[in-house]
Give the backbone structure.
Amino acid sequence: MNRVKKVTGLLAVVLLAATQVSCGAQTEAAPDLVATAARLDKLAIDITGDIEEIKAAELLNYHRVEGGIAACMQETGRAYKPVPYVSFYDVFTDADLGYGDSRATVVDSLTSHGRRIVLNELAIARLTRAGALNRTVADADMPALQTCAARFQSRDYHDFDPPVGVMELADLADLVEPVQRDPAVVSAMAGYPTCMKQQYGFTVTDRDEFLSSPRINRDHAPRPGERAGLKWRKGLNAIDKAFKADTDCRRPAYETAMTLLADRIGPWRDRNRDKLFAIRAGWRKAVADAKRLSS
């Protein structure tokens, strides 16, 4: 398997996230951009969950989906062995979550340099090698499996739906987009294509496409404890080079945008207080329910 199935739940958002957001050099007159970045990072995690919360929801969904498919198959008299449980997030820590470096917004992280892309590829490689992405049955039982899997939208267990309200707020569109449209930010970003071309040799017509361009192959991902091979290391270097160029050329616009964002995060939280409260309650419930599975 060279591609993971299209995901529609929280993973679709989390795949765009990144390592902890921080920033580069600041002027003395600028607000504390590091603190602003940390607040943005915290807000993103409050919405999309920390590692404990995400893994709890993933585990619950594993039992719901794989257990449900097994029960459905049993009802039809067909044999089915659930795929093994391997968490997509075993290679992640809380420091690897946050607002992101692959959303193609001006306020993407300046320091992660595509680390989240690498972690995603490592995770998919682990799940693929463990057989967690491939439900197998006898050929004669495949129609029954497809029918049973359809009860769960034919999604893998790691593609779970987060608490109610998460998908509505996760992209922080009404917080970030007005900042991106600010004339000062637009002006600061105007030199980005020229910088990328003249300083680093990258022709960028669509920044989203540029950041998501495949530069590393999960088939070359090292196994735990193994030394990375040459092809994997070349992929890492390609990602690092591209994201470092993006960071350097975007920095003026980033600093301008984060200065504007500094006074907007608090009011945004206030406007969405009830929704955030409900989301946090949903994540806490997922953790509690997951703990009861092993009690």
Observations:
- Residues 1-8, 11-30 have pLDDT under 50 and may be disordered.
- Residues 10-293 form one domain.
- The radius of gyration is 21 Å.
- The chain has one domain: 10-293.
